[in-house]
Each structure stands twice: as C-alpha cells, then as structure tokens.
Amino acid sequence: MYSFEPNEEQQMLIDVVSKYAENDLRTSSNENEENKELPKKLINKGWELGLLQASIPESYGGFGERNAVTNVLALEEMAYGDLAGTLAVLTPSLFATPILLAGSEEQKKNYLPKIIAGEWSPYTAALIEMSFDFDPNALKTTAEIVSDKIKLNGTKAFVPYAKEAHEILVYANLNGVTQGFIVPKDAVGLSISEEREKLMGLNALPMYKVELRDVMIPLSNRLGGASGHDFELILASLRLGSASAALGVAKSSFEYAKNYAKEREAFGVKIAQKQAVAFMLAEMRTEIEAMRLLTWEAAWKLDNNKEDVCVSAYLAHTGAADMTMMVTDRGVQIYGGHGYIRENPVELLMRNGRGFAMLLGLAIV
Amino acid sequence: MTIEFETPKPIVNQQVMLKTVAENMMRPISREFDENEHEIPWSYVEFMHMAMKAAGGGGGLTVTEKPQEGDEKRPPIGYQKLAAQIEVLAWGDVGMYLITPGGGLGAAAVAAAGTPEQKEKFLTRFNSDIPTYAAMCMTEPGAGSDTSAIRTRAVLDEKTNEWVINGEKIFVTGGDKSFTHYEKLGKGFIVVWASIDPTAGRAGMRAFVIESGTAGVKINKLEKKMGIRVSDTAAISLVDVRVPFENMLGSATVEKNNTGFRGAMATFDATRPLVAASGLGVARAALEFLKEKLEENGVKIRYGLPRQKLSNVEREVIDMEIMLKSAWLMTLKAVWMADNKKSNALESSMSKVKAGDVTTKITQKAVEILGPIGYTREFLLEKWMRDAKITDIYEGTGQINRLVVARNILGYSGKELR
Ligand SMILES: Cc1cc2nc3c(=O)[nH]c(=O)nc-3n(C[C@H](O)[C@H](O)[C@H](O)COP(=O)(O)OP(=O)(O)OC[C@H]3O[C@@H](n4cnc5c(N)ncnc54)[C@H](O)[C@@H]3O)c2cc1C
To answer: Please, which residues 248-287 of chain A have a Cβ atom closer than 8 Å to chain B?
Structure first.
C-alpha cells in the first residue's frame, strides 16, 4: 500500500511539537542566535515533549518504540521553529539512539533509563572532523585495541554540549571501520576546547572541539560491547536526522518568503503577483515536497528493514541539503535588501541552510 | 491513514507483465517507427487492444477498478495502477504508449463533463472488438496556454437543432486515428472545445463530440516532430460542421460560473500526474541505460561517499537518481489523492512541474555524459531525449503549471496572478 498521511498518533505529536516550534522556538530564534545562548528553560520545555522518551521501550524506562517516520515528522516540525534549539533539545539522542540501536544489553541498561529519567541532561556524540572531505566511513580519528583496552587518538569538531557532557559517544576508525566508543568526561587524555566553535550559523548552540590523545577506555565501552556493531544503520539514521531538520529549515524560509511576498508592494502590485517571484515560490514548495517524500520513504524503509535503506537515506540527505540551500537562498532573495539584515529571520535561515551539506551527526531519527 | 511505501501486490504483478510488453512489443520496433514517421505499428496496436480486453479492462488505459464488494476496507488504487502502467509503457516507448488504443483525452472529457446518457452513447465503443480512438482538441493556432482565447465557434441552428461549428484546431494527439477511417480501427470521435457565447469568456466554452467522418472536418496535416513521432499530431479545420444538439457535453445554458471550463480543468487535475508518469518512464529508461553503459566501462557509482570524493559523473548520476525518485513519489502522491477523493490540484501540478523538469534534465544530461554513445542513433538514448521534451510542454507547460502551483500556495485567482 502507498499512503501519504500521518496516522492519528503521529498527527497528535506533530500538533504538540508544532505548538512548541511556533510559540517558543520561532519567536526566540533570532534573539538566541544574537545572544549565542539557548535558555535552559527553553530546552527543557522541548525535552518534555518526550520525543526521545517515546523512542525507548518501557523496559529501559521509556514509553514507546522507535519509529523513524514519526521522528522524521517531529524533527521537521521542530526545526521549522529553530535549528539550534532543535539540535539542543535532541542532543541526548545522539548518544541514546545509537545505544538503543546497536548497544549491548549492559549499555542499554546502564545508560538509557538514566538519560531519559529526569530533565534534559547533556549526553552527546562526536562524529565530525575538520577536513574538507570529511567522510563518516573513513574517519581520521583512530581506535586501536591494546590488550584489553581501546586507545583513541584524534580530534573531533562541532561536538554539541561537549563541555558539560557526562559521556561522549566518540566515533573512530578501527581497522578501516567506523565504530562508536563511550568516553567518560574524566578520561585521561581527553580535552575539550576552552572556546566554543564559531560557525557561519548555529551560534546559539554550544559546540566544542574534542581532542583525544592516547585515551584508554575498557573494551566494554565499545558500542555493542567487545565485538562492536554495525555502523550502517546508525549512519542512515543520522542522515535522515539531517534531512528532516533541513526540511524544517526550508519550510520556515518558504513560509516567511510567501507571507512577505503577499505583503510587500512594488510597481503597484504585490511582489507575489510578479511571476519572477511567484515562480520562485512555486519551485520552493515543489522541491520541499519532493525531498520530504524522499525522506519519508527512506525512513519507512528504515522502519521496515528494507535492503536499500542506506542508499535511500544517502540520497534523501544529499537531496535535502541541496534543496535547503536553494530554498533558503531564495527566501533571502524574495526579501531583497531586507533579507540581508539580521533582524529578518530569512537571513539566519540561509546561514543555517548551508550547514546541512556538512552537519552530519548533529541530529538522528 | 498512515505513511507507507509498499507497492500494492496488484501493481507489482501488473508491472512484471507490462515490462515484458515493453521489452518485447515496444523496444524492438521503437527505432523503426521513429525513422518512419506517420507509419502505424499495427502489431502493437492490435496486441494491446487484445491484451487489454482479455484483462477485462476495455476502454483502453483508464481507471478500471470496479467498486469492491465485501472487502470494503481496502482503499481504491485505480489511479495508482494507471500511473504505474503508464510509467512502464513509457519506459518502453512513450510515443507508442500514446497510441495505445482507447479513448484517451477525448474519452476523459466525456467522462468529466458528459451526462450519463452521453457517457453511455460515446464511451461503450472502446469496449468493442477492434481498437478505437478518441482525441481532444483544445489548442488553436492563436490559443495554446491561454485557452480562453479560443476562436472556434459553435452556433445553434434552431431549425434543425444542430450545432454548427467553425474553427481551426492544431496539435491534436491521436487526431488522425480518431477521425480518419481505417479498416483496422473502429469508429472514433474528436472532442472539440468551442465557444457558444464569445462575450461570456470561459463561461461560454463547451465541448462537442464530433464523430469520425463528419462532413466539414478536414485533417490538414500531420505534424513532423522532434520526438514521439509514432504518435500522430493532427491539424484539423472545421468548416460548417454540423453535429446534433445532444453532442454538446453538459448543459447548454451559459451560467455565470464557468462549469464548462471547470470541467476541462478538472480533467487536467486527473491527467497531469499521468503525463508526469509518462515522462518519468522515459527518464528512467535513460538513467538505466546510462548506468548500464557506465558499468560496462568500469564506472561504478559509489553511493555513500561525500560529494568531495566523488567523480563528476558519479555526482551527476546520484543527482539524477534523487530527481527521478522524488518526482515519482510526487506523482504517486497526486494519484493516491485522486484515488482517495482528496482534492489534488496543487499536488497534481507540482508533480507535472517536477516531472517536466527532471525528465528533460535527466535525458539531456545522459546524452551529454555518454558523448558519442549518447548522440548516435545506434542507441535509443538520443531518441528518448527527443521524446522527453514534450513532457514539459503539453498538459500545461512548465510555466503554466508553476502558475497553478503559485496560485494555489498564494491563494490567488487567475486575475491576481497572470
Ligand atoms: C506533440 C503535441 C501534442 C499535443 N497534444 C494536444 C492535444 O491532444 N490536444 C490539445 O488540445 N493540445 C495538444 N497540444 C498542445 C499543447 O497543449 C500546447 O502546445 C501547450 O499548451 C502550449 O501552447 P502553445 O504551444 O500555444 O504555446 P504558448 O501558449 O504560445 O506558449 C509559449 C511560451 O510562453 C509561455 N507562456 C504562455 N503563457 C504564459 C503565462 N501566463 N505565464 C508565463 N509563461 C507563459 C509558455 O510556457 C511557453 O513557454 C499538443 C502539443 C504538442 C506539441
């Protein structure tokens, strides 16, 4: 069966997330970016919507089952409000979801209940590295098995909340294969940059460089236990996280531009009545829909263990990243000079929009 | 409702069968009928008619699903089946798909705007033993995208209770097979759009069924085209053509609202995703051929690598796949909405915008990437590029469909956004 409508439960979730996105995130987005800060209250409110909690089974303290399609829907909706806020709210998933997907029983029991029990608490993950051809399947950070320990070396970039994190899931290259390793904050040889990362966008989200110099951790801290895990499906989930957030950012810019075009006048008519503008809007809407469906399909494949899910997730992520750049660029264009001024939200959306080509590993479904 | 992408069983089965048809009945003669424009591939025409009758379809490629009894919970998939059929036949040869026997756009107009009696009178013929065609004539030399500018007139002769029609129509797909008498074909008709009251604008527009052989109708020429050459495109003149009063579809009174015209537009909501599907079939053929040739030459697409590590050819292919897959999903969504009686004017036009874009881009890029192999007539790829271009032109050009999308999202009327 083909079907293109969220079910009742998903619709209810979309509605609550949408309220938070519209009333809390969207209204504070620019201020947070300018202040380079996200109020804890704001993050906690988002956390209480329970997106991660609903992905975790009761046996580990949650109240549901992970559904990638549902998470795609929720993530788009939240990112529509604000990208930095969304990534902050969901930072603990970067640690918890891979454990849910690939962790050993011991790791699940050990971490999942404690992460989701109370208020938002900083658990995070480190994937990105500072090189032009950063490739999650060919990491430069290395892991080496040394008798009954693992030795980690390398530098990670753009790690959200690394400074306050209790534990960091660090991805590293073990004999040519990407594996996750749980690194406690007090590990010897682990250092977190004093200064926060400074990026083109996402300035409200605190991110850090993480350096690992001969960090030794027990074998049991390898994701999945001593024998490790498959990285493929985690990567697919990360790609879809990025794709869904991209959809939300694009939709936000499109909505601003559409409303502005219906208000703004030039040459005696609304600018939306000019085809040059109307056609841009038509194409923005069309491309958002195209990438949304591609993302939904890949997520559905993830939920249904379809063979080609990894390629699908890759295509959805690649397509959504391009689309969001195109859409957010046009958002600024339709505002004209006003789009270039930071007090207009389309300005930040374009800076954030560029990020999806490289920000893999900051959201997961 | 839910979000789901499992191809329904009936569609899976149908596709396997149609692929055989495409491979065995279409592809082998594709080139021959491209080079010999205006010849008719009777083998395909007669085979398809027989096959569709045997399958219980009748009436050609239309939504054939009967209302289900018993198992009423199963949602309808008639349009989805049709879109999938069209996609795979177009993958075989889109020009030949266009001459699949049946009522085509002519019958669609009758189905959308006709009374029950008219449907009975005009549509049963497609179920007969020999292939039968119908065509739709809207476009005129001076009126293409702007359908309100048509000059063809219909005047009622009250003495005989007949309509007298005068005008000139061009670019009529299937016009020849629908109107000219061929021994191997049944009696077809053309549906002609004309004004019964030029002062009323669109509200005065009506559709008239003109039976094959009617006096005063002349096929002036068959166009020579860039592609889809096996599909006849006729120029037709109408001089004092007389048709019975009851051949006018729908109501004769000129009401303030434009029901007549709305009928035509409603047809487009239904047919645009189908045209999208036909384009995407060609695009898929081109992309598959491209990948096959690349692989023969040792180029494998390394999915999963960051762009920076891919060759330019790999990037192009990956982008083409993103385009093709997403355009197909949009088409599916539009027909799924039609099946579920959801209003789909926006989705329908978006699917056509997207398909027009990606079909032309994919075929043109494929020819470019393959160089001489793309450009030679030894292979079908160059033909597919020529065939593909029509997708962005008929059933509303890319621009006209962008207008429809824009009006929808902005809440504008045709007056507010021209
Ligand atoms: C092979 C073929 C088969 C066809 N089959 C049929 C058929 O069966 N029945 C039938 O009735 N017609 C048929 N057509 C006609 C087809 O639908 C028209 O050609 C099409 O609608 C465009 O009209 P036109 O050619 O007059 O172009 P024009 O309307 O003159 O358009 C020229 C250009 O101007 C652009 N344009 C026009 N209006 C606007 C606007 N408001 N805003 C922005 N841009 C605009 C168009 O997009 C196009 O790029 C067929 C055409 C072909 C080539």
So the answer is: 258, 261-262, 272-273, 275, 278-279, 281-283, 285-287
The rounded distance, in Å, linking the Cα atoms of B179 and B263 is 23
Nearest CA to ligand 1 atom 51: B171
Same-domain status, A99 and A193? no
Ligand 1 atom 13, closest CA: B171
Q: Which residues pair with A5 in a beta bridge?
A: none
The predicted complex's ipTM stands at: 0.94
Residues A217 and A279 occupy one common structural domain: no
Rounded-to-integer distance, Cα A154 and Cα A149, Å = 17
DSSP per-residue letters across A137-203: TS-SSEEEEETTEEEEEEEEEEEETTTT-SEEEEEEEETTEEEEEEEETT-TTEEE-SSPP--SS-T
Task: Give domain status of residue A307, yes or no.
Answer: yes
Answer yes or no: do A58 and A71 share one domain. Answer: yes
Q: Considering CB atoms only, which of A2, A275, A281 is closest to B4?
A: A2
Cα(B146) to ligand 1 centroid in Å equals 8
DSSP B89-148: HHHHHHHHHHTSSB-HHHHHHHHHH--HHHHHHHHGGGGSSS--BEEEE--BTTBSS-GG
Contacts of A293 in chain B (CB under 8 A): 326, 329-330, 333
**B309/A135 touch (CB, cutoff 8 Å), yes or no:** yes
SS3 of residue B294 by DSSP = helix
Question: How many contacts (CB atoms, under 8 Å) link A and B?
Answer: 141
How many domains in chain A? 3
Considering only CB atoms, which chain A residues are within 8 Å of B405?
A: 282, 285-286
The whole domain housing A152 covers 124-227
The span from the CA of B100 to the CA of B86, in Å, is: 10
Nearest C-alpha in A relative to B351: A286
Q: pLDDT (tens digit, 9 = 90+) per residue, B226-274?
A: 999 999 999 999 999 999 999 999 876 665 455 666 666 666 777 899 9
Residue B65 pLDDT class (50, 70, 90 cuts): low
Residues A201 and A248 in one domain: no
Q: In CATH, what number is assigned to the domain containing residue A345?
A: 1.20.140.10
Interface test with A, best of B5, B311, B404 (most A CBs within 10 A): B5
Whole-angstrom Cα distance, residue B203 to residue B251? 11
Q: What is the pLDDT of residue B340?
A: 94
Extended strands (E) in chain A: 2-4, 123-126, 142-146, 149-160, 167-174, 177-184, 190-192, 207-218, 265-266, 269-270
Give the pLDDT of residue B191: 97
Mark which of A116, A143, A169 sits at the end of a domain: A116
Question: Which residues of chain B lie closer than 8 angstroms to A278, CB-CB?
Answer: 402-403, 406, 410, 412, 417
The answer to whether residue A1 sits within a structural domain is: no
Q: Is B4 a catalytic residue?
A: no
CA angle A99, A102, A103 (to 5 degrees): 50
Tell the residue nearest (CA) to atom 48 of ligand 1. B397
**How far is Cα B27 from Cα B115, in angstroms, rounded to an integer?**
40
| Residue A83 CB coordination number (10 Å) | 32
How many angstroms separate the CA of residue B195 from the nearest CA in chain A? 29
Domain boundary among A227, A259, A288: A227
Is A51 strand, coil or helix? Answer: coil
Q: Ligand 1 atom closest to Cα of B231?
A: 1
Rounded Cα–Cα distance for residues B49 and B61 (Å) = 10
Nearest C-alpha neighbor of B138 from the set B163, B175, B102, B85: B175
Chain A CA closest to residue B306 = A135
Regarding pTM above 0.90, the answer is: yes
Given this model, what pLDDT does residue B1 score? Answer: 79
